[in-house]
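Limitations

Structures in this collection are predictions, not experimental determinations, and the ligand pose is part of the prediction. Treat each record accordingly. The example that follows, with zinc ion as the small molecule, is included so readers can see exactly what is and is not provided: the inputs are given verbatim, and the output is the predicted complex.
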Amino acid sequence: MATCPRCKKEVKYDGEKLPRCFPFCSTQCQNGDLYHWLEESYSVPVETNRVVQEALEDPMAKGVKPFGDEPESLN
Ligand SMILES: [Zn+2]
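Predicted complex:
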């Protein structure tokens, strides 16, 4: 007997035909898991984008200095 990966309930089937939503107990669990999976997979590129964005912005903020910020008095 399999258990639903989402709600951990027993997945009941007649022994001959697996339910269409197998290994989930219901289409609700199947769709819910898919939604959760999509959410997680979307959050990864968003997080990566943010990190990349910060990495790109940081050297720019350091490289593009306003006039007067350079220690020219040391020359
Ligand atoms: Zn379930």
